[in-house]
Each structure stands twice: as structure tokens, then as C-alpha cells.
Amino acid sequence: MIHTIVAPIIVFAVIVLVHEFGHFIMAKLTGMKVEEFAIGFGPKICSVRYGETLYSLRILPLGGFNRIMGMDNQEYTDKRAFVNRPVWQKLLVVSAGAAFNILLAFAIFTGVIWHEGKAVFPDYPVIGEVISDTPAERAGLEAGDRILYIGKSKIDKWTDIHGALANAGNTVLEVQISRAGVRHTVTVIPANRDGRTILGITAYVQVTPVSFTESLHMAADRCVAVIIGVGKGLMYIISGSPQGEVAGPIGIARIAGNVADTGILPLLLFIAILSLNLGVMNLLPIPALDGGRLGIAAQAVGIADAAFDEVRARLKERRQFGRTLEHFQGLRWKAADMWAKVEAARQLTLYAARLCDGGKMFRAEASAAKLMASEAAVWCASEAVQICGGSGYLHGSVAERLYRDAKITQIYEGTSEVQRMIIASGILG
User: Fold this and answer.
1) Final residue of a structural domain among 268, 286, 304
2) Pick from 286, 302, 327: which residue ends a domain?
3) Across the strands, what pairs with 150?
4) What's residue 174's pLDDT?
5) Same structural domain for residues 228 and 329?
6) Which value, in Å, is the radius of gyration of the alpha carbons in the chain?
7) Degrees (nearest 5) of the Cα angle 27, 28, 31?
């Protein structure tokens, strides 16, 4: 349980903090004014000013942030402000975060390979390690056991184990093993984790020591392999292939917890892979967080608009006291409020999008669009459920689905509270 909570915090904290540290270092090297470098988010625990920069420690240990003068939508006369620096310096500062994420991955790969040596997977059906608190441990399986049969399936290679477990479910299995040349049969009840049937064993791996120079080369090769994998994943997503799946923060947190259960080194490797993914994605010509907020704002506008359409149809179709609901003043006012909120959110989103297309700063506007659109979506969806009554509350109804979909727009790409902080920073400094 503790791994499930702590591991995601560590993963996100390390990756985000290294990313922001890259921006910080490059901003300093190019002579920009960094007003604050913070570790964590939320209220300050403590802070100290060194030179012109405030260094603060905040209560939420999820990475950190930089406040570089001129990275908001305000104009500055100070030549050291981000907006007043040459284009090449801006590019260096913006790309430094991604570069540091890539360097982090390379450093972790190098350290792990140098420490662990070169691993070779011979594909023998021999257990390398039995994970604690798993079906394998409870059944008495041990490292070094050679698996001969799982049920009626003969096991000649390690990959045969996956095939034998694929259709096993939670049924009781007899596993025949060879231990020190003696055959044994144990009874195992497999577990199901994230849709996979598992025993809780890892494969036997042959390890040979490598020099530091070799570890550098191997780390570089691994980075290239991950980058190629990221490229293939993007192509799958673009082409609409079912293989193109993306894990969100919740999915990543769940994976981090599962990886942490297997040990510190697998967790380090997971951090490296995730950091490399983030670094590569940030170097691609894809809109950054501000652009992402515009996308969420547009999504929220669509949800709010759909909720209004559902209410309008309901008011025109449903009859009470000999007339349709659209003739009741209280409901007409609700419909008017819904339409006004939808259009206000739509226009604010379009305004932020025009600023973005024009190459202008739009951070505060993007946050304002997401804030107002997401809150409009939640309010409109809630009113749709209320007006539709019992049918709107039923699972699978349009109003119920919209209500569920609306809430997430207030959470991802920064909560409504985060958006208010960004807006306040933009308008007040």
C-alpha cells in the first residue's frame, strides 16, 4: 500500500524537478532573471533569498517550478526578461528542460548498467527470483527451480509460461518443477493484476560485469531504443492503431506502484524511461501545457454545449400540466443561464486560441479558458441531470455520462485552483 502512494510521488517529483532545474540552469546561463525556483507546489514551508532569486520549499512534493521574468503575458522593460531575450536564448531555455530529462535517463541507464552488469536472457524456464507476497512464494517456489509443466502444458522455454498462464484465470494449477535434480509438484492459485495472470516469478538472467565505458555505450543504445519506441507509439496514435495507447497520470501512478513492488532498480529504470519519454515529447513541435489547456477548454465547451442540447430537447419534448416544459419560466431561466455560460466559455476559448495562432503570449488566457469552460461544463451537466430527473441519473443516460465526463476537465492539465494561481500570476505578477 505504501508503495502505491510513495512511488508515484517519487517518480513525478524527480522527473518534474529535473525538468525545471534544466530551465533554471539555462535561464541563469543566458542571463535571464529567475525570480523564484521552488521545490514542490502549494503553500510555502520555508524560503530563502540568494541574490535576486527566491528559493522556496513548498508543501506538495510533486516536482517544482521556475518563475522566470517575462514568461507570462505581460510586457517588461527589463532587458533580462524572457520576452526581451534573443530567440536562440529562448529556445535554449525552453528546450533545456527536455534536455535534462534525456540526460537524467542516460545517467540512470549508465549507473544501473555499470552496477548490475550486462544481462543476458537465455530463455530458460528457470526461476531467477520469487517476488514476495505472491502466489509463487505462497506455493513454495524458489529461485533456481526449473519449471517443467504448468497444468498439462509442457514448458521448454520461459516464453511458454506466458502461454500456459494466458487462459488459466484464477483456477488452481499444478506446477511441476525440478529442484536440484529432483521433481516436485506444487499447487498454485495464480493472481490477476491489470488483466494479466501472474505467478510472481522473474526469469533467470545471466549477468556479466561491464566497464564504465561499455556502460556509457549501452546506455546510449538503450536511450535510442526507447526514443524509437516513442516514435513508433506516436505513429500508432496518429494512424489510429489499437496499439497506440497512452497512459495518463493515474495509469502512470498505478504502474509506478507496481514497479516499486519489484525493487528500487526497476523503479529507477521506470523513472529513466518515463523521463526520456517526457524529454522527447517536449522536443517535438507539439503545443506545451498552455496549448494543452486550450484543448481541455475546447473539450469542456463541447460537454457544456451537449448538456445544453440535451436540456433543450427535454424542455421541448416533455409535457406537464398540458404544456411542454419550455413554457415554465423557472426552466426557461435555467436554459438561458446554460446558453450564456456555454457561449462565454466558447468565446474565451476562441480568444485564447487566436492569441496562440498569432504567436502571442496566452498563458493566463489559456488558464482562464480552461477554468471557465470546465466549471461551465460541470454546472451545465449537473443542471442537465437535475432537469432530466430520474432518467438523467440512470447509468448510461446522456446526462449522466456528460456529468461524469465534465468533472475530469476540472482536474487534468492542472486543477481549477492551479489555473487561478496562473491567472493571478499573469495579472498581478
Assistant:
1) 286
2) 286
3) 153, 175
4) 86
5) no
6) 27
7) 85
Cα separation, 92 vs 348, whole angstroms: 31
Same domain flag for 259 and 296: no
Residues contacting 194, CB < 8 A, separation 6+: 254, 258
Element (DSSP H or E) covering residue 66: strand 53-68
Contact (Cβ atoms closer than 8 angstroms) between residue 361 and residue 73? yes
Q: Are 326 and 196 part of one and the same domain?
A: no
Same domain, 293 and 363: yes
User: Could you give the CA distance from residue 41 to residue 415 in angstroms, rounded to a whole number?
Assistant: 12
Q: Note the pLDDT tens digit of each residue in 281-305.
A: 777 654 445 556 778 888 889 888 9
- Exposure on the CB side of residue 337, measured as CA atoms within 13 A: 14
329-363 confidence digits (pLDDT tens): 888 888 889 899 999 999 998 988 888 777 777 77
Locate all alpha helices (DSSP H) within 240-362, ordered by sequence: 249-260, 264-283, 289-317, 329-357
State the catalytic residue, choosing from 20, 365, 375, 400: 20
Closest CA to 291 of 377, 343, 353, 374: 353
User: What is the pLDDT averaged over residues 68-74?
Assistant: 70
**Number of domains the chain contains:** 3
Q: 20 catalytic, yes or no? A: yes
> What would the mean pLDDT of 104-127 be, rounded to a whole number?
85
Same domain, 63 and 74: yes
Domain extent, residue 216, equals 1-119+209-286
